[in-house]
Write a structure and sequence with these properties.
heterodimer, A: Rossmann fold, 4-stranded antiparallel sheet, B: mainly alpha, MetI-like fold, 79% helix
């Protein structure tokens, strides 16, 4: 698989990305500048899974938000399929958007509480640009993520956490994406539901040649899903490389700390590690 | 759904009974006597007794209450006004239209203003526009209606002379054509509607602003943006619809506020509505009018809450599911 990925074309390329948040002064506080991301570069090829691992507040979600087109970089370039997404006009960026789909950590908050599963997925199918073929109907999408088609008449509050996250994945698939941005996709799940989701994500990756940008603080999850890993601290990558090499021979102390902190023993019981 | 409505209607029966009984007791136990209003203080106690007997006020309180309940329940008769002898229902019917007009216009004005300004402030959150709108709305929120009404009267009616200061229509209203009559109504209702509507608009504004800000930050909105759904569709179809939910439950509570606000506004602008009728009835101890108006107010409040509950359960599937599970 590694050889195949190396031969495939680059999907997302991020060069020297800097994200700075300006906080305006108030009556009690002075102006504040937060350097969330400080010169980060990486690329993701088609069918490849790249993980950014770091503690909360290190800047990994800012990178994801910037790649989704929600947070404007202060410097650097983000190219998707060879096009700098921050230089595209509104029409072109709307065309490009379905190809990069997010799957959020808070699965409950990512589904509109007033819509049935059917409506949620149909809404995504309708959002597809006209010049693309639709992936399939709601039943097929639910089947793809391992859910019974009867679930489509339910509302989000009538679903379990695992089911909600699968609906999020099905909705993302409805748009025929090339890249999924997975922001802590299994962190709110229990162990068995988390493992099932990882299996699903791995299967989808193989079937649809999907690329993943995985954001996580947990190396044990990342290990099961990613081909390459970058370790992030205070807005910069401290170390990056192929998953197995980095986890078995970490060179940076921060990486060693994260490996120690991750709960690998529990996952080893599942037989996946 | 029908069983839920029936359950809610039956739940509200004790509320109405308790409310009306308390009103009856408060009105009758309050100092003062309707008979005194008709008499010269020098008249003999015998004459006073004749008047009390004429109004049925010489009986013990529980018998008065029972007689009144029987009349209302079995004959739908709320009694006649002690002053003009007209049936209470007739007096209230003529007073109801101006109040409905005033409260309805104020509610529509408040909803439109509160929702539009709430959305504008939310999408321009933490900017000069947001802060300016928020400060102005907070000013209206914290200003008492009577003071606002008096200020509007002083500036727009007395100083500038732009708008009439009292009554629902002009003296020459009947001689006007249809457009003229309509304009006449608008001119007379403009200041009362502003007085009653602005504090209400500020209440709605607060809910809509915070609701839209919260919705805009939620993941399902980020997801919708990531799917390439347009800004306006996201704002009105997702954010606003979900932010309107608290407003619906608020509408049930707003009705008593509208009625009590209407009392003050009608007195300030001399509008011949329920509020003014009720104030004069209270001052004159016109028991049948006070009690009939109270029943009407209780029904309005209960109906408002019932409609809000039902609408909420129709719009929000989470509530519908919960209600079904509980019932």
């Amino acid at each position: 698989m590694q050889a195949g990925i190396t031969a495939s074309k680059t999907l997302l390329q991020i060069q020297n990305l800097r994200i700075v948040y300006q906080q305006k002064s108030t009556f009690f506080t002075a102006d504040q500048t937060v350097h969330a991301v400080n010169g980060v570069s990486f690329s993701i090829r088609q069918g490849e899974s790249f993980a950014i691992v770091g503690r909360s507040g290190c800047g990994k979600t800012s990178i994801a938000m910037s790649a989704l087109g929600f947070v404007k970089p202060s410097a650097g370039a983000i190219s998707f399929m060879g096009k700098n997404i921050w230089q595209l006009n509104r029409k072109n960026i709307r065309r490009l958007r379905p190809l990069i789909q997010p799957v959020f950590q808070d699965y409950g908050n990512s589904l509109n509480p007033r819509m049935t599963v059917n409506k949620i997925i149909i809404e995504a199918l309708r959002a597809q640009p006209n010049d693309q073929t639709r992936t399939g109907n709601v039943k097929q999408l639910l089947d793809t993520v391992g859910l019974d088609s009867e679930i489509r008449w339910r509302y989000p509050h009538q679903l379990s956490g695992g089911q909600k996250q699968r609906i999020n994945i099905a909705r993302a698939l409805a748009l025929n994406p090339k890249l999924l941005i997975l922001d802590e996709p299994v962190s709110s799940q229990d162990l068995s539901a988390g493992v099932q989701l990882i299996e699903l994500l791995n299967r989808l990756k193989q079937t649809y040649q999907l690329s993943y940008l995985l954001i996580s603080h947990n190396l044990s999850i990342v290990r099961l899903l990613s081909d390459r890993i970058a370790i992030m601290k205070n807005g910069v990558f401290t170390e990056q490389g192929p998953a197995e090499t980095l986890l078995q021979h970490p060179s940076d102390n921060h990486t060693k700390e994260l490996i120690d902190a991750s709960n690998l023993t529990n996952l080893s019981k599942t037989g996946l590690v | 759904m029908i069983s839920i409505i029936l359950k809610r209607v039956l739940d509200s029966v004790p509320t109405i009974i308790i409310g009306i009984t308390l009103t009856f007791l408060i009105v009758h136990l309050a100092p003062g006597d309707p008979g005194i209003r008709f008499l010269d203080p020098s008249q003999s106690p015998e004459i006073q007794q004749v008047i009390q007997k004429r109004f049925g006020l010489n009986e013990p309180l529980y018998i008065q209450y029972w007689n009144w309940v029987k009349r209302v329940l079995f004959h739908f008769d709320f009694g006649n006004s002690f002053y003009n002898g007209k049936p209470s229902s007739e007096v209230l019917r003529s007073a109801l239209l101006p109040t409905i007009l005033l409260a309805g216009c104020a509610l529509v004005f408040a909803l439109i203003t509160g929702i539009l300004l709430g959305i504008l402030a939310a999408i321009r959150s933490n900017t000069f526009t947001d802060r300016t709108i928020t400060i102005i709305m907070m000013l209206f929120f914290s200003t008492p209606a009577f003071w606002l009404g008096i200020m509007f009267l002083g500036v727009f009616s007395i100083q500038l002379g732009w708008l009439p200061s009292s009554h629902l229509t002009s003296l020459y209203h009947d001689q006007l054509n249809t457009i003229g009559r309509f304009t006449d109504y608008i001119k007379h209702l403009f200041l009362p509607v502003l007085t009653l509507g602005l504090p209400l608009a500020a209440t709605f504004f607060r809910y809509i602003r915070s609701g839209v800000i919260e919705a805009l930050r939620s993941d399902y909105i980020l997801g919708a943006r990531a799917r390439g759904i347009g800004h306006n569709k996201i704002l009105f179809r997702y954010c606003l619809k979900n932010s309107l939910l608290p407003i619906i439950s608020l509408l049930g509570v707003i009705i008593p506020a509208l009625l009590s606000g209407a009392v003050i506004v009608e007195v300030i602008f001399s509008l011949p509505g329920m509020g003014r009728t009720m104030v004069s009835a209270v001052f004159g101890r016109d028991y049948p009018i006070i009690l009939a108006a109270s029943i009407l107010a209780f029904f309005a409040v209960v109906a408002g809450n019932l409609i809000a509950d039902i609408t909420y359960s129709i719009i929000d599937p989470r509530i519908r599911y919960q209600t079904r599970k509980n019932s």
